Amino acid sequence: MPAAAFTFVRLKYHSGDWDAVDERMPANLLHSLVQYTKVPVDPKEKVVALDSSELFNYPFCYLSGHRLVQFSSTEKQNFIQYVRNGGFVFVDDCNHDIDGLFARSFEEQMRQCFGSSALKKIPKTHPIYSQFFTFKDGPPNTGFELNGWGDDLVHDYLKAIEIKDRIGVLYSNKDYGCEWDYDFRNKRFLAEDNTKFGVNILLYALT
Fold first, then answer.
1. Strand, helix or coil at 109?
2. Is residue 69 within 8 Å of residue 102, measured between CB atoms?
């Protein structure tokens, strides 16, 4: 675990609408880290430009949106270098649609960055599903998958790009960002805390 406080970094990229979603989600997940673990945290989300060298100061980044993802040459170079150097990027499709613009354009960027076969489905036995809490059936479903906005399907998998047998890019069409986008004080009204998988993701990125 890091000696310094963990910082939740949101990636700013020139295309798309990186800043239009999930405003309360980072604080909610940070609250969960404090609630369940001893990881020190910075309570405020930080926005870092993908084309900035500041990116390399942080082990975890989050990227999301609804629209086109088309990296500039510097953004693409930084993304590749960050992932190959051991950084972790959690990418969440807020359209939860495998045929939507965000999904198609982001996956094309990954093909350009890492090759056509780099982004693959991960098995339900992957260590990320037992990093802290155990999810025997793989990725938990979200309440946003069957609301008619996206492809109206429940996705029973996540995809990832692995570098040296470690996830460097975790990619979701399940819209976890919106699922966790609520004030952490409302968590007490849930029968089961739905941010637990988020804790797994963050701890996997940090270990």
1. helix
2. yes
C-alpha torsion sign, points 160, 163, 164, 170: negative
How does pLDDT run across 34-71, given as a tens digit for each residue? 999 999 999 999 999 999 999 999 999 999 999 999 99
Predicted local distance difference test score (pLDDT) of residue 117: 93
The proportion of the chain whose per-residue pLDDT surpasses 70, expressed as a percent, equals: 98
- Measured CA to CA, the distance from residue 22 to residue 94 in angstroms comes to 9
User: What's the predicted TM-score (pTM) here?
Assistant: 0.95
Q: Which token pair is 18?
A: 């990186």
Distance CA 204, CA 7 (A): 14
Tokens of 39: 């990881």
- Residue 101 CB partners (closer than 8 Å, separation 6+): 66, 67, 68, 95
End-to-end CA distance of the chain: 6
